[in-house]
């Protein structure tokens, strides 16, 4: 399974592609961030993110997309931009008919580090270890995107098998 992880952000939108399956070593395909300038109008920034995500989908042809679920923080200006970038990510994936999963930050932290309260450095260290990298991906948004893809492969892949088994048994997933 090949998964595009997206850590939505208006200034830096982390993107990372991981390939693998549960119980097998995972492989980093590519990782980066899509950047926009705060001096640009919000609409243009969202178009830049959309075009960037479309380019990643064209180049890497993922089987699924995993996006960080937006949650309330104290800074409403930050959450608004994150939510807008998240919406763009959902639209570009849905437009192509790709399965999209939303994972909470604590779910991702728990999946890759064993603790839902892990800090960014711990997540980066575990992504480095899981993917057998020489150094943690920078910036943290890139590492977070990879953590989302890893989480989806480990958890989303298992959920897909459960749903398929239920469907085969004639029950709704």
Automatic annotation (TrEMBL):
<dbReference type="InterPro" id="IPR012337">
    <property type="entry name" value="RNaseH-like_sf"/>
</dbReference>
<comment type="subunit">
    <text>Homodimer which binds Holliday junction (HJ) DNA. The HJ becomes 2-fold symmetrical on binding to RuvC with unstacked arms; it has a different conformation from HJ DNA in complex with RuvA. In the full resolvosome a probable DNA-RuvA(4)-RuvB(12)-RuvC(2) complex forms which resolves the HJ.</text>
</comment>
<keyword id="KW-0255">Endonuclease</keyword>
<keyword id="KW-0227">DNA damage</keyword>
<dbReference type="GO" id="GO:0005737">
    <property type="term" value="C:cytoplasm"/>
</dbReference>
<comment type="similarity">
    <text>Belongs to the RuvC family.</text>
</comment>
<dbReference type="GO" id="GO:0008821">
    <property type="term" value="F:crossover junction DNA endonuclease activity"/>
</dbReference>
<feature type="binding site">
    <location>
        <position position="141"/>
    </location>
    <ligand>
        <name>Mg(2+) 1</name>
    </ligand>
</feature>
<dbReference type="GO" id="GO:0006281">
    <property type="term" value="P:DNA repair"/>
</dbReference>
<dbReference type="GO" id="GO:0003677">
    <property type="term" value="F:DNA binding"/>
</dbReference>
<comment type="function">
    <text>The RuvA-RuvB-RuvC complex processes Holliday junction (HJ) DNA during genetic recombination and DNA repair. Endonuclease that resolves HJ intermediates. Cleaves cruciform DNA by making single-stranded nicks across the HJ at symmetrical positions within the homologous arms, yielding a 5'-phosphate and a 3'-hydroxyl group; requires a central core of homology in the junction. The consensus cleavage sequence is 5'-(A/T)TT(C/G)-3'. Cleavage occurs on the 3'-side of the TT dinucleotide at the point of strand exchange.</text>
</comment>
<dbReference type="GO" id="GO:0048476">
    <property type="term" value="C:Holliday junction resolvase complex"/>
</dbReference>
<feature type="active site">
    <location>
        <position position="68"/>
    </location>
</feature>
<dbReference type="GO" id="GO:0006310">
    <property type="term" value="P:DNA recombination"/>
</dbReference>
<dbReference type="Pfam" id="PF02075">
    <property type="entry name" value="RuvC"/>
</dbReference>
<keyword id="KW-0479">Metal-binding</keyword>
<keyword id="KW-0378">Hydrolase</keyword>
<keyword id="KW-0234">DNA repair</keyword>
<protein>
    <recommendedName>
        <fullName>Crossover junction endodeoxyribonuclease RuvC</fullName>
        <ecNumber>3.1.21.10</ecNumber>
    </recommendedName>
</protein>
<dbReference type="InterPro" id="IPR036397">
    <property type="entry name" value="RNaseH_sf"/>
</dbReference>
<dbReference type="GO" id="GO:0000287">
    <property type="term" value="F:magnesium ion binding"/>
</dbReference>
<keyword id="KW-0540">Nuclease</keyword>
<keyword id="KW-0963">Cytoplasm</keyword>
<dbReference type="InterPro" id="IPR020563">
    <property type="entry name" value="X-over_junc_endoDNase_Mg_BS"/>
</dbReference>
<keyword id="KW-0238">DNA-binding</keyword>
<keyword id="KW-0460">Magnesium</keyword>
<feature type="binding site">
    <location>
        <position position="7"/>
    </location>
    <ligand>
        <name>Mg(2+) 1</name>
    </ligand>
</feature>
<feature type="active site">
    <location>
        <position position="7"/>
    </location>
</feature>
<keyword id="KW-0233">DNA recombination</keyword>
<dbReference type="InterPro" id="IPR002176">
    <property type="entry name" value="X-over_junc_endoDNase_RuvC"/>
</dbReference>
<feature type="active site">
    <location>
        <position position="141"/>
    </location>
</feature>
<feature type="binding site">
    <location>
        <position position="68"/>
    </location>
    <ligand>
        <name>Mg(2+) 2</name>
    </ligand>
</feature>
């Amino acid at each position: 399974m090949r998964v595009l992880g997206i850590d939505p952000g208006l200034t830096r939108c982390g993107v990372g592609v991981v390939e693998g399956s549960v119980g097998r070593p995972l492989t980093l395909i590519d990782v980066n961030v899509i950047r926009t300038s705060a001096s640009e109008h919000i609409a243009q920034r969202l178009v830049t993110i959309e075009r960037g995500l479309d380019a990643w989908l064209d180049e890497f042809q993922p089987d699924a997309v995993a996006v960080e679920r937006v949650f309330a923080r104290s800074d409403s200006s930050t959450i608004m931009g994150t939510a807008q970038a998240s919406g763009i990510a959902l639209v570009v994936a849905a437009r192509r008919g790709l399965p999209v999963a939303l994972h909470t930050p604590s779910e991702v932290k728990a999946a890759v580090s064993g603790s839902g309260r892990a800090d960014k450095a711990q997540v980066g260290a575990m992504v480095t270890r899981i993917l057998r990298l020489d150094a943690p991906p920078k910036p943290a948004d890139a590492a977070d995107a990879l953590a989302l893809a890893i989480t989806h492969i480990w958890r989303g892949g298992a959920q897909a098998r459960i749903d398929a088994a239920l469907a085969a048994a004639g029950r709704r997933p």
